[in-house]
Amino acid sequence: MSSPATGLTSSSPVDDNAPTLTVLIGSSVAHAIDPDQAPVVIGRWVDPATASATSSDTPPADIPVVDYRISRQHLVLSLRNGRWFATDPGSRNGTFINGEKVDEFEIPEDDEIIAHLGNPAAGIQITFSRSDAGVVYAGAQFAAARRQLRLSQRALASDGVINAGALIAFEKGRSWPRKSTREKLEQVVHWKKGTIEKLRWEYAHGGQTTAAASAPVLAAVPDPEKTVVVPPSPSPAREETGTSAIDPGFLAQWASQNLAQARAHRAELPPASKPAYQPAVARLIGELASLELLVHNASATPELRPMFMQVRNELREVMLAAAESPSATSGQRLFAIRDRDRLSVEDAAKLAGVPAESVRAFETGGAVPATDKAVLENFLASLQ
Length: 384
Known about the structure:
There is one protein chain. By secondary structure, the protein is α+β, with helices and mostly antiparallel strands. The chain has 3 domains: 109 residues, Tumour Suppressor Smad4 (Sandwich); 72 residues, Orthogonal Bundle (434 Repressor (Amino-terminal Domain)); 136 residues, no CATH class. Helices cover 41% and strands 13% of the residues. It contains 13 helices and 11 strands. The strands form 2 sheets. The chain has a 6-stranded antiparallel β-sheet with strand order 2-1-11-10-7-8, covered by helices on one side. Strands 4-3-5-6-9 form a 5-stranded mixed β-sheet, with no helix packed on it. Helix 10 packs across helix 12 and helix 11 crosses helix 12.
């Protein structure tokens, strides 16, 4: 069997017992993929009216995404012996899971897996699962509305709307709340009665299945035929690479949305005295550190300067709070002492005799060479 988009042939006959795969693009568009549709391509949407003659050899993606960081054929979903696999056929900017670049991965049967297309921190988030696509879509829409209003999961639980576990399960698309609970949820985000059910119904009847129609239209780039190259790490100056740079306005909007999401995660942190606090705050610190790194790389543009300061201040507040917790790591304590003594990362690196990158990684929970880690532990002891 071949796909109209790829011309690829699946490696085995269709397995009638294979599960339907749910693909959530960001938090706005959900797709249900039946086994007989494989292989399916996720790729950049190209307007047929503006596509050049040279692009006619590349068939359109089955799941189009309006984002110029995405290659026309970025990820191929296929079935092998009843199991779903995702393969990157050689995209320009790559596919990432947990910050690591991958060429192929298996989608688990009993859990979800999240990939980022185009960049480990700033890429388009794609969530794969076996959950009901309509429930996934409705849950994601509610989560987005809740975060926009800065309502924490803990606050909804304390107000008796829904307990945190049930809310997480709904927002992840793993369960469907009772009607009375749905009505309470609709009230807290100022939705009309029946909106959650309507969202699920709309998906089931084709109301939200096309990424090209639902995704936001980004600012135009000089050459829509090129995939925008996302810088993997900060550089002293922007290089001229012959490809279009990411639109600063779009990047500022994207960073603002991610900062709002990080703030919502901060509001949902367990109490500092609980064992679950440190793993949760460590994930949040990693999230903010990655965002800071990306925004810093583009902060020379006027649109990004205020956003960079907001992200840095948010990271500072989270780090200082973590440093005061009973389970504070050595890195978090070093950050707090640097902040107290007004030492920059470069100052601390020079005093300790290690690279600045090691100081940043030590503080934010990244990988640090063993020798540098030992030096920084001793340096911390000398400052206390």
